[in-house]
Amino acid sequence: MVYAPGHFRQVARRRERRGRERMAARLGGLVAAALVTAAIFSLTSGSGAVARGCVSFAYTTMIGGGQMHRCGAQARTLCASRPSSGGIDGSFSAGLQAACRRAHLSGGH
Questions:
Q1: Partner of 108 for a Cys bridge, out of 13, 55, 62, 101, CB 3.0 to 4.6 A?
Q2: What is the pTM of this model?
Q3: Of the candidates 52, 105, 62, which has an alpha carbon nearest to the alpha carbon of residue 87?
């Protein structure tokens, strides 16, 4: 194949970017940096320590699971109840008992 004179010089020369291209590249970099920052923050920041007198734990059931968080009188009532041992709600019972012990509430059997 025969190329036009000067073809290789033109191909090898670095193409200059226009103002819009430079702005789009900068904006893309900023968006990428923001996403990485948000991802790192979400992975490293947890719910933190649970306040004294509060019960907070995750549990699983046959059809899913959930997060339980109660404080004050509700937490005391929840810890005073006697959940069943084993069965379908075995994860809930174990999680509740451990959370009650961590919260220093009676009922962490």
A1: 101
A2: 0.47
A3: 62
